[in-house]
Amino acid sequence: MGEDRATMRTKFIHLGSFGWCWRMLGWIQCPRSGGGRLRFVILVAWLACLACLGVCSADDSAEIRVWRDQTGRFETKAILVEIRDGRVKLRKPDGRVVWPPLSLLSQPDQDYVAKWQQAQKASDIFAGGVMEGDSPGPEAEATATAWKPGDEPVSVQSGRLLTVQPMPRPKLSEADPRSVSMSSPQAGLTVLPTIAGLADGNIPYLLDPKGRLSLLRVQQGTWDKTKFSQAVLVDHEVNRANPTTRWEEPLHFFNANPNHGLILGRADVGSWGATGQMVMLRLDGSGQLSELLRWYPDPESKESKPRVRQVEFIDAEIVLARVGDIVRVYDWNERREIWRLPISGWHRPALSPGGRYFAAQIRDEIALFESKTGNQLGVIKRDDADPVDLVFHPTGLRLAAVGGREIDIYDLADAGNDRSFSLTEPIDTFYSDPSWTDESHLLVGGTRLVDTDLGRQVWQYDLGGRGNDNRAFQSGLFRGVIGGRGGLIVFRHAIPHATVAKAKASVDWSDIQVLGPGDSVRLEISVSGPTNRSKVAELMQAAIAKAGWKLSDTADSVVRFANYRTDERTHRFRSGPLKDQELPYRPYATVVDVEVGGEVVYRVADVGRVPDDFKVSLDETLKDAIERQTVPTYRMIERLDLPPHIIQPEFQHGLGKSTLDAEGFVDATDFVSGLVQAPPRGR
User: Fold this and answer.
1) Could you tell me which residues belong to the region Disordered (predicted)?
2) 3 state DSSP class of 269
3) Mean pLDDT across 613-633
4) What is the DSSP string of 150-164?
5) What is the pTM (predicted TM-score) of this model?
6) Integer CA distances (angstroms), 103 to 106, 134, 142, in order
């Protein structure tokens, strides 16, 4: 039969109740019967009980309960509706539905689901007809993967699959140091000369993987005349525009896939772009642009103006475009739309570095999706619905949300590391258009650099034009900001320094109850500034001495610096702690080991890649040349167990940052540790 026994039983009960109620109404209205008022009260009470019974029978197994993930940090209130394909369908009190994988729920929740399934089977009342729409597909991955440049460093972490509660935002005053500029606007910046022949209003996009070429949309005239010129290729090494590589058609909001030499943009036809087309170009080996194809992103739209505001490459064949307040994913090779998603307003969503995941704001939530399928993977709950621009960290492990003066940094692997801070002045642009210059610095509004670790603005520079015309980048030998005030401006330094080198020492005393002269503790030293790594030990000793400490003179305390290179053919390390590990781009590693009693207890491996065209001068060794020109890609920090007699404070570390300045020094931040002795009492 098409209906189960429980459904038929419920219908018979309701039909019988209806007939009985009909007779009761006749009984009350009958003029020959007495006590009509009392009978009416009895009938109303019976109807109320029947309504409660109907509600319970509609979903007798539904229970609003608090669901938690395996870490216990994130929770949501919902009703269990159905289980399918390894996922559970949870309906929130407001009617919204989420599909977290069963394996990522806490053990009590998994036990509850198992009992729920048994109860459904035992009573034979499981009805698949309560589903609303189709299942979101197979279970998403929940494992971390090793990072290689260009790949996604992490898939889906368990901590983000359920609704996350809004994080508290600190109240900052005007005098709060976290909101005050730390340096003069132009401190420490190396600005390349502007390029002759290029007018204001350039919107640059990096095209070459090594960071040497950019494609610019060049504006001529004023906005009221809306006269646009060409797309021009610029060579950063010689700092000039290529006169032979020009595209006579104006392109807007375009982007590039450097690995395949592809450029995707919006080409406008008619006054103010009466008809907007998506156009795909290719840059060949000779530096010439050619058209591959073009199509209309929304041929059914009745609007007179194109609304394509953002395009991103997911891979060589699939692109993502923000058309008004709808995100659309296209297979450009087949000229078809794969999926679409309405988002909140025109503010910028984010695509992960490897193109695998996509984040967008939907009202007061930030949702995470699989780029190629549109399956929703997780939700981050915000405390308001104010529009924000989103951008993934270069590692893909963090997500920045920027709006007005508020900046939120979400850690996708550990919500305990989420950060939120405010700037004293709001970003003076409709689009904040955030972009990362390195692992900890975020460019917002095209003019202001913010240190996300310190939670404050470090410099501001007037690049001219609108804020979203300027972009931060890191690629090849160049790292900084690219913008257009009277041409092209490239900063080789993204992080200014007031002094050539500086060092500071600090120790966490929270775990140290009694400390006497000569007692040993581990002390972390932060060394920053444009300096060669060979001076790190010297700066470390100076910082310890300045703090009133001294290096232990015992023979079992050793700080050792070692350098390792990979085999040019196999890209594997030949020796050392990274032996047999394979890394791309001819990597090079500087490893800092701290030994106690002949045993390594702490290790920092700074892994980078050597440029293909690195050079060695006559007055330096090969090691120094590689060290000077290495472009770090990531840092591996390993902490081994310390001997029991060593007091071990709370472990803290930071990511290394390096870039090449005009003088050839490495701008580095290194974190090293050593065994030190406590100062005499009374200091």
Assistant:
1) 133-153
2) strand
3) 51
4) TS-SB---GGGSSPP
5) 0.44
6) 8, 20, 9
